[in-house]
């Protein structure tokens, strides 16, 4: 038996004690259980389990490796590269990609006359932001080099999940052609991705040596005199930063749009729009979208999207690096694999009340104490010492993109292609580590079409001048 349930049903218990093949696993299912194991006992639960597919085929990265001295140095460099004091160097890029997104949504959606699937547009803007912020490199959306990179990254993602890489837990399966082929595909993609990143970094290194001062994460890492990272470690660090943001942000935003075009969603859009125009009476909201979080309602939107639509429902596995003694009297032995049921914790009625299963952004305005639940009030970025290093800049990116979209458009559902009704059904890839949203249609209807057309004309003229 590959999976053996022990003691409790996985959905009801504070912790579930199960076996994946020959490996003992503990799953934290409630908000408090996640907090106890991964925050209060964070010093004992920050390791990563050994993963056969990663060791033999793909190679570990910053997110999947235990924090030895080498990876601690990478994480420290990652944290420094995206600290709030360096954000101003990213603003020009964020504003440029925000402009492009608005123009693309308007033009491709026929200025609200036809529904489009928002996910590809969110992926393009996230990838463009990722490359620009991480490597100070720009691509067109259809650049073949970029498309090759995206394809390789997607292949690697397929071998990251516990639910589709059972060869990590059942050694006999490693002989099966299916799992050998999966590993070989991941290995080929990983090698090619690393080569591509090295090419970009070598070019960046040459620019720095020539006296340029690129404002990007990789440059921050390579020029940080206190980190002493080698070029190879800079590759691993920068790759991890790029992979994470370009996978999760598009899925979160797209799933959130599904909530905003059904039920009370249209009312939420109008409340957000009213709050934006009240905060910026001089009609300069777009200029400030990424520079500050001045509109609490828009901040509440991204918080609720992150809480409600969990694109990494089981997060990435941890391992107990020493015995963990729980307040219940239970001891989790050293070496045990640990999972956080992020979807369960984010919908814990003991914390979020009877509306925990509803998409309700205003909960963050009604109850300010929710923001004091921890470093972040959910586990969608991970939690504790292994939380995503870029979680703060990711929040700002989501805030800015939501503000720009709501400022320019009313989002409307397409009756023939409706979004999933709730968080339980929004994902189309439940067998992967990342649950990508199902396809649905959105009409992006301009709030003021003549003004938007003028704005987009200016955006396109500016792009033409930059290319010239």
Automatic annotation (TrEMBL):
Could you state a single Gene Ontology molecular function term? monooxygenase activity
Chain residues that bind heme: 388
Record keywords: Heme, Iron, Metal-binding, Oxidoreductase
Q: Which Gene3D superfamilies does this UniProt record tie to the protein? A: Cytochrome P450
Required co-factor? heme
Q: Identify the Pfam families for this entry.
A: p450
Q: Does the keyword Heme apply?
A: yes
Q: Does the keyword field hold DNA damage?
A: no
Say which family it is in. Belongs to the cytochrome P450 family.
* UniProt protein name: Putative cytochrome p450 phenylacetate 2-protein
Q: Which organism is it from?
A: Phaeoacremonium minimum (strain UCR-PA7)
């Amino acid at each position: 038996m590959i999976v053996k349930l022990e003691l409790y049903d996985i959905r009801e218990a504070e912790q579930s004690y199960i076996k994946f093949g020959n490996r003992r696993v503990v799953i934290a299912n409630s908000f408090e259980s996640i907090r106890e194991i991964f925050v209060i006992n964070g010093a004992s639960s920050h390791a990563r389990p050994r993963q056969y597919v990663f060791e033999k085929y793909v190679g570990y990265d910053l997110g999947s490796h235990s924090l030895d001295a080498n990876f601690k140095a990478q994480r420290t460099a990652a944290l420094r590269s995206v600290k709030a004091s360096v954000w101003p160097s990213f603003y020009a890029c964020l504003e440029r990609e925000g402009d492009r997104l608005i123009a693309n949504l308007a033009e491709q959606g026929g200025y609200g006359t036809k529904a489009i699937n928002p996910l590809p547009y969110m992926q393009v803007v996230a990838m463009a932001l990722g490359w620009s912020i991480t490597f100070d490199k720009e691509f067109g959306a259809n650049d073949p080099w970029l498309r090759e990179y995206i394809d390789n990254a997607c292949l690697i993602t397929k071998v990251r999940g516990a639910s589709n890489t059972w060869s990590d837990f059942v050694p006999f399966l490693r002989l099966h052609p299916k799992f050998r082929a999966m590993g070989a595909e991941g290995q080929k993609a990983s090698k090619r991705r690393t080569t591509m990143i090295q090419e970009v970094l070598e070019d960046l290194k040459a620019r720095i040596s020539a006296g340029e001062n690129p404002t990007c994460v990789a440059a921050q890492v390579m020029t940080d005199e206190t980190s002493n990272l080698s070029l190879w470690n800079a590759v691993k660090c920068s790759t991890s930063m790029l992979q994470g943001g370009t996978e999760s942000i598009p899925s979160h935003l797209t799933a959130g749009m599904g909530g905003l075009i059904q039920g009370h969603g249209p009312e939420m859009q109008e409340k957000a729009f009213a709050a934006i125009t009240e905060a910026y009476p001089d009609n300069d909201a777009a200029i400030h979208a990424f520079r500050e979080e001045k509109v609490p309602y828009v901040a509440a939107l991204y918080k609720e999207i992150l809480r409600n639509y969990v694109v990494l429902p089981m997060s990435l596995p941890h391992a107990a690096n020493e015995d963990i003694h729980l307040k219940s009297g239970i001891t989790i032995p050293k070496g045990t694999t640990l999972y956080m049921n992020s979807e369960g914790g984010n919908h814990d009625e003991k914390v979020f009340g009877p509306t925990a299963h509803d998409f309700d952004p205003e909960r963050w305005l009604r109850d300010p104490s929710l923001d004091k639940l921890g470093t972040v009030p959910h586990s969608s970025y991970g939690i504790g010492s292994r939380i995503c290093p870029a979680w703060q800049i990711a929040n700002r990116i989501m805030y800015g993109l939501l503000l720009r979209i709501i400022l320019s458009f009313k989002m409307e559902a397409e009756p023939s292609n409706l979004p999933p009704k709730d968080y339980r059904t929004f994902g189309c890839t439940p067998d992967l580590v990342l649950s990508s949203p199902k396809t649905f249609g959105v009409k992006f209807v301009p709030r003021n079409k003549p003004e938007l057309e003028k704005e987009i004309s200016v955006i396109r003229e500016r792009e033409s001048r930059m290319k010239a």
